[in-house]
Amino acid sequence: MKNVTWSSRFTKQIDLEVLDFSQSLSIDIVLYEVDIRVTIAHVQMLSVCGHIKTSEAKTIIKGLKSVKKLAESDKLPWSIEYEDVHMNIENALVALIGDLGKKIHLGRSRNDLVTTDLRLYLRDFIDLYVDKIRETQNVLAIMAKKYASDLFPGFTHMQVAQPVTFGHHLLAWNEMLFRDEKRLLNTRNILNEMPLGSAALSGTSLKIDRKMVAKELGFKGITTNSMDAVSDRDYVCDFAYTNSMIMMHLSRISEELVLWMNPQFGLVELDESFCTGSSIMPQKKNPDVPELIRGKAGSVYGSLIGLLTLMKGLPLTYNRDMQEDKTLILESIDITMSCLSLLPRLISTMKLNKAKGKEVAASFFSTATDLAEYLSKKGMPFRLSHHVVGDIVKYCEKNNLELTDLSIDQLKNFSPLISKDIYKALDPMICIKSRTGIGETSPSSVTKQANAILARLKKHESVK
Ligand code: ARG
């Protein structure tokens, strides 16, 4: 079997195992739609620049639209004989309209075509992702408002540390996702330059209008060095990194869900339709979805490391190694998307166990910091207040008491600065209400912040 596009200088046929080994059709077939989009824009430009006749361009574009229909209805005879999606599309076009179809590959090569296609393909995904991330932020902001004044334990070192509001915790998740949104938009911005026309590596001797094609395809501009343009896969790594960050966040959120819904914590309930049972222990309601999200993060990191390793030793310009980029980024995209799609739905089923939240938030001397701040507000240096409260906690632990169990006289023994208003400082509800600054835990701060998020989200119709 001889490859029609490049085999004329060969006397031997390609080894069949080599053909199977080197083809990328099985992976890059997903690019068929963007590939046709790009070629239509390219052909329009070739005709405007006088390299092909207007009537020829019309026939070619009509042919390309028919190829697209064939592909959509599963009637395109894909074959690994043509190596990749680009050659399959061209071959299908030639089968439909004859040798005229061979005119499309002028002033370009597969090296610039593949990276142009991939940029468009990833850009479409980024737009989808941004929508999903915003949807999740929306869910979180609405829930944060709902739970703006409900007490919840705030942890450090996985031990109860200070009381917070549940809404505040949900808005902490929101911040992570907002940064992901910004990273996605940044990645979109970086990849949104068009390499087409860089050809194999050095550009083309034909006078072409790259800016026209870029505009048609929605790129914000064109790449400015043809050698870099065909060698650059930074944007693929950027997307893989952005996905890794998203998965790291989703995994942390998942970890918290796993802990909170553990019956020993009993802080939240997830809807049954998002949980699974055990095949042997009839009583179990397991958090498999968050566990799987947590587990899948590893594969997404793997894709990032794979991509960085793929690129690290490559001399300029195109090297066939780069074909592997698609396997890696597509896996990263698939996994991240499935998690991003499920998580907002899962979170929206989450119900806070308010009584438990309140109980745990008040336990383990969680208001000890407020007691120390109470003393410092009365003039005691904080280091000293910290020490005094440490003594009080030690006393309570020894006698199996809560801070609020101590009488005013007992408390005064530790410091004469303490008076009756101390009990207010020890009330978790008063503690949280006193933290009214921007980004703090008070119900009013949380409501304000959630409203600001909702207002911001409302402004976005779509990223495009
Ligand atoms: N299938 C190839 C890829 O994805 C297309 C580029 C082919 N270029 C080449 N010089 N063989 O990278």
Short description:
With 464 residues, the chain is mainly alpha-helical.
- How many strands in all? 6
Stated plainly, the CATH topology of the largest domain is called: Fumarase C, Chain A, domain 2
Strand order of the largest sheet: 1-2
Q: Briefly note the structural class of the backbone.
A: mainly alpha
Radius of gyration: 30 Å
Q: N- to C-terminal separation?
A: 45 Å
Beta content: under 5%
Tell me the series of helices and strands, N- to C-terminal: HHHHHHEEHEHEHHEHHEHHHHHHH
Query: Any idea what the CATH architecture of the largest domain is?
Result: Up-down Bundle
What report would you give on this structure?
The chain is mainly alpha-helical and 464 residues long. The chain has 3 domains: 100 residues, Fumarase/aspartase (N-terminal domain) (Fumarase C, Chain B, domain 1, Orthogonal Bundle), CATH 1.10.275.10; 219 residues, Fumarase/aspartase (Central domain) (Fumarase C, Chain A, domain 2); 86 residues, Ribonucleotide Reductase Protein R1, domain 1. It is 61% helix and 5% strand. The protein has 19 helices and 6 strands. The strands form 3 sheets. It has a two-stranded antiparallel ribbon. Strands 3-4 form a two-stranded parallel sheet. Strands 5-6 form a two-stranded antiparallel sheet. Helix 6 runs antiparallel to helix 7. The model has no long low-confidence stretch (mean pLDDT 95).
Features:
mainly alpha, Fumarase C, Chain A, domain 2, two-stranded antiparallel ribbon, 61% helix, Fumarase C, Chain B, domain 1, binds arginine, 464 residues, 3 domains, single chain, two-stranded parallel sheet, Ribonucleotide Reductase Protein R1, domain 1, elongated
